[in-house]
Amino acid sequence: MRPFHGIFLGLLGLSLACGTPAADDAAVVTPAVPPMLWSMYPEGEAIFVSGVSAEGVYSETPLTVIRQGDGGDAVVGFALVTANDAAQSKVQLRKLAAGQALDGLVARLWLPEDAEIIATLDNWPPPAGATVAAVKPRPSDSLPPAAPASKPQTSLPSYSGPLPEKLQHKNPDKRLDALAKYEDDPDATAMIIHLMINDESFDVRKKAWRMVRARWKRGTGNMAHHEAAARWMATQGPSALRGEAEKAIADHG
């Protein structure tokens, strides 16, 4: 147990023992959770990231490449996960600061605020044997104002059900098989989004999300509802899938 938690629990116990009620407006401050960082390393012609698949990060997930240093973490590039196995994931570098050595780099899930920094970087590959200064984010007050939305955002569609019998099966593998049959059904958008949010199996929710993404890209079903589902996933979905949703919004939104 961390010291802070021990002190907090001790004071709470003393308050209860003395019969002193806690203040109604007392706020409990939750420390920010640091982002998960994964080591990157070259192996022959390929580049790998360790431990990503164990955290539920899958193929096509965008990652921000980081160089850690005494002055803080510096965003130095952008990569996509291309293949997973139990111990490591293969990545494809899409952008890297000119001259940046691969040794000692780490990666984390891509965040929308990384986009402007990454856009300023020179493209991969770096010159042999060259080095690069860390790229620092600009202060927030120097960033240009966000562009106004060009169109009103659509709410998530409602689904009154009931679900087809095979999509109610207790075995999630059976539900996955049944769900795949609706990939090209233009009238299935609301049902797929319902499963993306509500199914008890993470694998089914992930499959439903990726069907939404694929249908949005192909133009199958209601495009506004696909966009609304992607925005929900980017803000309220599992952390492993938020980066995919943010990228889909950037590509199609």
Write up this protein:
The chain is α+β, with helices and mostly antiparallel strands and 253 residues long. It has 7 helices and 6 strands; from the N terminus they run H-E-E-E-E-E-E-H-H-H-H-H-H. Helix 5 crosses helix 6 (223-236), helix 5 runs parallel beside helix 7 (239-252) and helix 6 packs antiparallel against helix 7 (239-252). It is elongated, with a radius of gyration of 22 Å. It starts with a helix and ends with a helix. The model is unreliable at 1-31 and 124-151 (pLDDT under 50).
Strand-and-helix sequence, N→C? HEEEEEEHHHHHH
Give the amount of beta strand, in percent.
15-25%
Overall pLDDT level: 74
Helical stretch count? Answer: 7
Measure the end-to-end span: 44 Å
Low-confidence stretches at least 5 residues in length (pLDDT < 50)?
1-31, 124-151
As a percent range, the share of helical residues equals 25-40%
